[in-house]
Structures are given as structure tokens and as C-alpha cells.
Amino acid sequence: MNKNVFIILFVLLLASCNKIEVIEENNQDNHIIELNRSDRDTMKKFMKFNQIEQTPVDSLIKKYPPLWDKTFILGKKDGFITEFRVGLFKQFTQKEIKSRDIKIREVTWASSDEENLTVWFEEKDHKWIPVEHFIWDKNAEF
What we know:
Elements: H1 3-16, E1 21-24, E2 31-34, H2 40-43, H3 57-63, E3 68-73, H4 94-99, E4 103-110, E5 115-124, E6 127-137
Antiparallel strand pairs: 1-2, 3-4, 4-5, 5-6
């Protein structure tokens, strides 16, 4: 996955927050962004996109139960690229989508009280690799 995309989105997320504190969890390099120190316990239930790359998806799901978790073949039946999934065109060409069965896992978590985070994983060598993500307003209609 392109780390520059994560860096840009991280900077945008930081710019949108009023009070930001980065704390270290379990003395590791994994950081959780919290908007308000007094809400620390409440905020830990929210998924942050910077946790995605370092942790296997099944571990994330156990620690942070998603709003939904669905698997599909890209471009077929319930795997069509809709307005919601348009970011997948940055990762896969039309030719790739038509010529092979790309298995995608779409997982959505609450990332704040106002926003959700959807991450698309591609199955490679029996592992789920994050390929794209989208942070969106909970009131958005697609």
C-alpha cells in the first residue's frame, strides 16, 4: 500500500481535530489518536486507519468489532464498484477486474462519533492485505 496516502490522510485527520494527543499504547510504536484525554476509554472503541497496516485484519476485528464485514469478488454480483467503492479503481484497472477473480474483504468501523472508516483488503497468499480505505460521514448516502 502506498504509505504516502496514509501520511496525507493522517495529516488531514490531524488538521481536522481540535484537541489531539498522541499516546503510546502498551509501550509499542503503535499510536492511537485521541481527541480528548477525558474520553480516553470511550475513544479506544474507535478504529483509526493508522492501526490497519501493522495488524492482521482478524486481530483488528476481535479488538474492534466492525459495523460490517463482507467478502466479495470485485466486479461480480455484490462486488460491483459503486460510488462508495470508487477508490478501488486506484488499485485495480478495469482489465484486471475483468480478467481475474480479485477477492476483496470490505470492513467498516466507527472511526469517531461522526465518521466511519471502511478498509478494503485483497486476499494474497491466504492473507488479507489492505489496498484502499475511505473515511466517510456517518450521515452520507451512497
